[in-house]
């Protein structure tokens, strides 16, 4: 525990880089980096293993900055250690197309593990990273071969601690006894509104102790590097639970505004910058100054860790000889390759097969493929029997001492923690070598919306099974019946929302979700039984949209999920009235939109008016239809059949709207006939 002047110089370099970057951008949050620089320096330089020349080394330690507004702290460290982040990148902080955006983005900056900024989510991501490590270590480590030994470290602040998601995730991490997780709490007692005594007076230490965490306290995080080092070392020595270190810091240390909210989210004033640099021993006339001895000091650590990776690579070679099958599997999963014949394992359904709820069809898929996709980690938010996300012989991921599972288990019981579940899944996906899947009710996927948004932004492969997908769930009533949820998530860029109409479409949803590496998926599934429909196939459904029934039609009915079958019944009803109709199923908007325009125009051609039908909000259906029939109010508590009759989502009700649509576009004695151009045709592309 010996610290030299170069340690102090390195810490102050981090601080001045944060000051200069935010001043040049005239934007940013310098206060947290200035306060947390000592803890970050000790953590990175004394404890973490990583290789800047290979940011994707499988056994690297993971670091999460949950209070992502303080990202210049992390950017400065990445630059100083030699990641592909130049001094010019620091100078372009918060500028267009830079590698240093206003909050950390994992797909933009080498060395950033997860995208953070919305407070608390990074904390939950860290729990996911720790779960992935514990699981993979149990699967792949063998006597004499410790391939996966890394730890996850997380910084979080008062804002993260206030967010409910952090409470959810911390509770679950404590239950799971994740000894590889160490979270460092920046206890600076400041939020944007000022001193937290106005909103946040709970004892965070006792709270984490109650969750089952080991807790250390550092009274002087501004200066006491020895205490910081000892606290981290003591936490690493704890082998039966996660750890939290409460570090008292001064936000904006050295500034005239230190310890106040004024230094939280604003650059320092020019005179303040001058004084701070003098205090830290830097030339006030220079900006973005990095002493060579700091580069050398951090460079030595980076070289040492490069040697550690080389040693690990040698171990992996020996592992390949001793455990060839496990090595092959390790490499396959690390490279993110699925088995070749996955589609061949999926069942094929015909119209003669029994009607089955799509949540049960989903369960059948999991039963068929779980052995061939061992990277699939399933789970549920306390709704396992409703979501059907657990295959029959699944082992729970649990601490072995509970006697109800082990670390190799592939089913995670998240409890009633939907938001944390989604963010933990993001952490699992960010770790790599696993594909997280979980279950909840579609209506309550809204609890998870911010985390699913970050999954889409971060290009993470996560799969959300969302059952009870419409008013057809019945007597639980409007509190549980999703109306706007499909529209919400369909509006989210880079997110696949699947609403399959039968078994083949359910298979297609799984197949595409598993094959698409950079996109989250939501599978909206029914509680009620669905008939297996004539003419469906996996190959048709993987196009996102296709023609169910086609002829020289007067109208096209376009729909999803359970309403596709009702539309097919409406076709027969219309035929009895001498009106030919065609039906189109669009199980996934996102995938359909990716098809060539020529294909989409075959599905939704000119000269035929289009009526959309869905037991949900009509918002968004304008992109595919001329008229929309749905539900733009809350549902009601009643048996499903009565609800569908009430909202006229019946063959008769659909036929009535279809005839009105035909009449409108066909013209009358007082209304001119309308030109029918497919909504697919656009003056300019809609996908950017």
Describe the structure.
- The protein is an alpha/beta fold.
- The protein is built from 24 helices and 20 strands.
- A six-stranded parallel β-sheet has the order 10-9-11-12-14-13, sandwiched between helices. It has a five-stranded parallel β-sheet with strand order 1-2-3-7-6, sandwiched between helices. Strands 16-18-17-19-20 form a five-stranded mixed β-sheet, with helices on both faces.
- The two termini are 53 Å apart.
- The model has no long low-confidence stretch (mean pLDDT 96).
How widely separated are the two ends?
A: 53 Å
- Total helix count? 24
CATH class of the largest domain: Alpha Beta
Q: What number of domains?
A: 3
Residues in helix, %: 40-55%
What Rg is obtained from the alpha carbons, in whole angstroms? Answer: 28 Å
CATH topology of the largest domain: Rossmann fold
Total strands: 20
**What are the segments in which pLDDT stays under 50 over at least 5 consecutive residues?**
none
Task: Summarize this structure as a short list of keywords or feature phrases.
Rossmann fold; 12% strand; 20 strands; 688 residues; 3 domains; six-stranded parallel sheet; globular; alpha/beta; five-stranded parallel sheet
Helix/strand layout:
Blueprint: H1 5-25, H2 31-46, E1 62-65, H3 71-81, H4 87-91, H5 121-140, E2 152-157, H6 158-162, H7 164-176, E3 181-187, E4 190-191, E5 194-195, H8 204-211, E6 214-218, H9 225-237, E7 243-248, H10 270-279, H11 292-322, H12 324-334, E8 356-357, H13 358-369, E9 376-380, H14 384-387, E10 411-413, H15 418-431, E11 435-441, H16 449-458, E12 463-467, H17 485-490, E13 496-498, H18 503-515, E14 521-524, E15 529-530, H19 538-541, E16 546-549, E17 555-559, H20 562-575, E18 581-585, H21 589-593, H22 597-603, E19 610-613, E20 627-629, H23 640-646, H24 651-666
Parallel strand pairs: 1-2, 2-3, 3-7, 6-7, 9-10, 9-11, 11-12, 12-14, 13-14, 17-18, 17-19, 19-20
Antiparallel strand pairs: 4-5, 8-15, 16-18
Helix pairs in contact: 1-2, 1-3, 1-10, 2-3, 2-9, 5-7, 5-15, 7-15, 11-12, 13-18, 15-16, 20-24
């Amino acid at each position: 525990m010996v610290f030299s002047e170069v340690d102090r110089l390195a810490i102050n370099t981090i601080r001045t880089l944060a000051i200069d970057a935010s001043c040049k951008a005239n934007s940013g949050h310098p206060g947290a980096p200035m306060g947390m620089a000592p803890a970050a320096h000790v953590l990175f330089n004394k404890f973490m293993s990583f290789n800047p020349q290979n940011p994707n080394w499988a056994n690297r330690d993971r670091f999460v900055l949950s209070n992502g507004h303080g990202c210049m702290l992390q950017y400065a460290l990445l630059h100083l250690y030699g990641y592909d982040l130049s001094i010019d990148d620091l100078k372009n902080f918060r500028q267009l197309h830079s590698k240093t955006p206003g909050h950390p983005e994992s797909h933009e900056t080498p060395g950033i593990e997860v995208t953070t900024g919305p407070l608390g989510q990074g904390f939950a991501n860290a729990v996911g990273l720790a779960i992935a490590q514990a699981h993979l270590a149990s699967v792949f480590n063998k006597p004499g071969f410790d391939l996966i030994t890394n730890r996850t470290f997380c910084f979080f602040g008062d804002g993260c601690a206030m967010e409910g998601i952090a409470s959810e995730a911390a509770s679950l991490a404590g239950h799971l006894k994740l000894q590889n997780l160490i979270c460092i709490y920046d206890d600076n007692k400041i939020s944007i509104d000022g001193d937290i005594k106005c909103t946040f007076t709970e004892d965070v230490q006792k709270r984490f102790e109650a969750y089952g965490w080991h807790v250390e306290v550092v009274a002087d995080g501004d200066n006491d590097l020895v205490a910081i080092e000892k606290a981290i070392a003591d936490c690493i020595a704890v082998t039966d639970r996660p750890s939290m270190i409460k570090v008292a810091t001064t936000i904006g240390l050295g500034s005239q505004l230190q310890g106040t909210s004024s230094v939280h989210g604003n650059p320092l004033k020019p005179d303040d910058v001058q004084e701070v640099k003098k205090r830290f021993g830097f030339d006030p006339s220079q900006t973005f100054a990095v002493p060579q001895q700091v580069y050398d000091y951090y460079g030595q650590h980076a070289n040492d860790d490069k040697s550690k990776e080389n040693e690990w690579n040698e171990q992996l070679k020996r592992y390949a000889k001793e455990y060839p099958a496990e090595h092959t599997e390790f490499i396959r999963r690390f490279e993110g390759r699925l088995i070749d014949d996955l589609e061949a394992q999926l069942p094929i359904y015909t119209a003669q097969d029994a009607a089955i709820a799509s949540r049960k069809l989903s369960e059948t898929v999991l039963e068929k493929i779980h052995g061939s996709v061992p990277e699939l980690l399933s789970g549920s938010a306390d709704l396992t029997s409703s979501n059907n996300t657990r295959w029959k012989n699944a082992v729970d991921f649990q601490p072995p001492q509970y006697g109800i599972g082990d670390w190799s288990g592939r089913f995670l019981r998240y409890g009633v923690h939907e938001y944390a579940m989604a963010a933990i899944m993001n952490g699992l996906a960010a770790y790599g070598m696993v594909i997280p899947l979980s279950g909840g009710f579609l209506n309550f996927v809204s609890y998870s919306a911010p985390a699913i948004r970050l999954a889409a932004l971060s290009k993470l492969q996560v799969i959300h099974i969302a059952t009870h997908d419409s008013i057809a769930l019945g007597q639980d009533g409007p509190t549980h019946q999703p109306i706007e949820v499909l529209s919400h998530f369909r509006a989210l860029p880079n997110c696949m929302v699947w609403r399959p109409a039968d078994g083949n479409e359910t298979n297609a949803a799984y197949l595409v979700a598993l094959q698409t590496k950079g996109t989250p998926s939501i599978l909206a599934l029914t509680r009620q039984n669905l008939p297996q429909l004539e003419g469906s196939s996996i190959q048709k459904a993987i196009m996102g949209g296709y023609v169910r029934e086609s002829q020289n039609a007067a109208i096209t009915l376009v729909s999803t999920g359970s309403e596709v079958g009702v539309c097919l019944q409406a076709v027969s009803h219309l035929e009895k009235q001498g009106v030919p109709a065609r039906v189109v199923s669009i199980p996934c908007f996102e995938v359909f939109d990716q098809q060539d325009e020529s294909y989409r125009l075959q599905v939704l051609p000119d000269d035929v008016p289009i009526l959309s039908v869905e037991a949900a909000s009509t918002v968004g259906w304008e992109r595919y239809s001329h008229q929309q029939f749905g539900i733009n109010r809350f549902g009601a508590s009643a048996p499903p059949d009565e609800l569908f009759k009430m909202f006229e989502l019946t063959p008769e009700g659909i036929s009535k709207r279809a005839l009105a649509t035909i009449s409108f576009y066909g013209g009358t004695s007082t209304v001119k006939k309308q030109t029918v151009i497919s909504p697919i045709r656009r003056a300019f592309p809609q996908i950017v």
